[in-house]
From TrEMBL:
Belongs to the OLFML3 family. Disulfide bonds join 133-315. It is found in: Secreted. GO terms for biological process: signal transduction. Keywords: Coiled coil, Developmental protein, Disulfide bond, Glycoprotein, Secreted, Signal. Residues 57-98 form a coiled coil. PANTHER family: OLFACTOMEDIN-LIKE PROTEIN 3 (PTHR23192:SF8), OLFACTOMEDIN-RELATED (PTHR23192). This is Olfactomedin-like protein 3. GO terms for cellular component: extracellular space. InterPro entries: Olfac-like_dom (IPR003112), Olfactomedin-like_domain (IPR050605). Residues 132-388 form the Olfactomedin-like domain. Residues 1-19 form the signal peptide. It comes from Eudyptula minor.
Amino acid sequence: MGPWRCLLLLPLLAVALRAQQQQFMEYVERRLTLLEERISQWHDQSSRYSTELRDFKNQVLGMLETAEKEREAMRSEAESAAVRVDRLEREVDYLETQNPAPPCVEVDETLMEKQVATAKQRKNEKYTKLTDCSDTIASVRAMKILKRFGSTSGLWTKDAAGNSEKIYVFDGTANDTVYVFPRMREFTLFSATRKAARIKLPYPWVGTGHLVYNGHLYYIRQQGPFQVIKFSLANKTVVDSSVFPAEEQIPVFGLSPFTYIEVAADEEGLWAIYATKEDEKNICLAKLDPTSLDIEQMWDTPCPRENAEGAFVVCGALHVVYNTRLPSRSRVQCVFDVSGTLAPEDASLVYFPKRYGSHSSMKYSPRERQIYAWDDGYQIIYRMEMKKKLEV
């Protein structure tokens, strides 16, 4: 190609190059315009989202402020309700101490003589067992000191027959008021009686030989002849009463001069442990009908009153606990089996851990196989290890 032809092509190449540059610039401009539109759209959306977020934040703050006000209102209502509940508890405690007028409990002399005659006819007869219980105490498996409450002498127990968890406390050896705690926890944790209901009995009780059995309180009233009062814990009324058919009673335990009759419960039912001047050296035992309070059978036992501090019945066998005038270690030293299925020499010599003084009461729970004891103001639980009787 000659030089003159190259000169002719140069203008054509310049025109083509300018056309390409123009197209490229238009393309770039279109892309920038599209990008600007997208940036503008994102800015609008971001601004809208920011406004919505701010509105939502303000709404949440308003809701939190309202919730805080409602929480304060609820707290105030709860405090007011707690005050009303506390006042209601005090009013209920007050109402529970109020009882209807004491019923007239008259002593039928003819009926009492008949009961004494019937009981004496069956005195010292062999007892026909109602259950197949053949256990006796082997040893004290464990001891637990719950607390110290009230006087040096007293009684605490559960219902020996029912499933109630209530704790019944008789403070002292003569009074007319029983404290009732709803559960063991309330009795253990609280030193005062604020958590306890109070039952004011129609007649004062004496001693520490009382019993709670199948929703009823069997307690000893002293006014002339000793009476066993059957008191309904549900209705707060006297259901029945009976003059104990034993003449010239004396304290049943040598170391507990305030207890004349010990009402006890075991797997067989209700028992009465007592003593009379007729045989003032030894302890007597009687089987009670829990419904009518009649004496079903009576026994003179070989267990001496001297240095005795308490007693309980297990599977138809009387266990008498002894100590010394100067408090030492309590021990079961005499066992009397009314059915004759336990030889005296086969009965275990059971020792209780030495604590503070001597027991003013010992209540056996056949349902739990443990003893609720009151030792110089301390409330103690003894868990018993049982074994089978070796029949004679």
